Amino acid sequence: MKNFSTVGVRAAGHPAAHLAVQLIAAALFSAGAAVSVHAQDLHCAFKANAPDQHTVVRGDTLWDISGKFLEQPWCWPQVWGMNRAEIANPHWIYPGQVILFDRAAGRLRLANKIAVAGADSEPGTVKLSPQLRTEALGKDAIPAIPPGAIEPFLTQPLIVEADELKDAPRIVATAGNRVIIGKDDKAYVRGNLKGGTSFQAFRPGKPLRDPVTQKVVGQEAYYLGTLKLQKEAGAGSDVHTFVVASAKEEMGIGDQLMQMPPTPMQNYVPHPPAGKVDARILAIYNGVTHAGQNQVVSVNRGKLDGLDVGAVLQLYHVGQTVADKSASKGWHNLGNPQVKLPDEQIGSLFIFRVFKHISYGLIMQVTEPVVVGDVAKTPE
């Protein structure tokens, strides 16, 4: 079978090149050797027309690159033999590096393209070096997915879980008794700040019910802006003085505050959850009832259910329950019993923000629109 390549070069065939690749592999995978497995062992098949190698360029993502080699992009960690620590902090793939497909081992390897070979070498070859990049660690590393697709959802609350509302500070008054306030206006806040000085303002929306249990698991949150603590409550008072630092929407009395979350990690590796996860789509954002590729949804499972950042779930339409009308025909006359049709796979979901019981996910690819109640579960 002919080998395909996305670039016009291939690794030099002499022993030095092979030694360089082996040194790189040893350096990169020594920590993860214990979990190294062939992709096929976990149903992570390589594409029949997978290239021999790929040179990383700016604009690449881990998802796109893995999709060049693999039938399922979420299989990336398996074919690299990555351990959990490396999955959490994969700042080691940069533009200019070469990814090699070791067909015999069923693995991907990483090499640096450092120079064109001499005149006596085979045309179009490159020398490979075991050199590892250490300077500016992570600064120029390629992202897992397009960062622009999820940036607004990394820090702004879209859902507030039920237990977060109990003690949330709230605006009780405004300077000059204004009905609405905006940037640089003062707000008087009552509640336990728990040592925080920077907060987000939100207005609770409709309650969100688990599609299976119908239990309220949270509320939609309308993000309004940010506030900074100007003066903490004095003795004999529980009212704090804040100043509006930024305003996306108008704020007013009754709006609630949440502490600003820490800056989230934005470079994560797609991987299946560590265990079985069976979730349902909880809500869809941007004011639509159906979601497609690169849209954000939430699911009714979180870190307490085994989800972590970078986990990939497969999406399914729930199979309908229909009457078996053919059962009333023939000797086995059973009336019209109800039967459930199989769930139909429609795409994949990349989890990028995780709370206790709820997570946000980005739809990576989909063949049909996603709706509330659709299944999202561990890849099979």
From TrEMBL:
Keywords: Signal. Pfam families: LysM. Gene3D superfamilies: LysM domain (3.10.350.10). The keyword Signal applies. InterPro entries: Bact_Kbp, LysM, LysM_dom_sf. The keyword Signal applies. CDD domains: LysM. Residues 52-101 form the LysM domain. SUPFAM superfamilies: LysM domain (SSF54106). Residues 1-39 form the signal peptide. This is LysM domain-containing protein. It comes from Pseudoduganella flava.
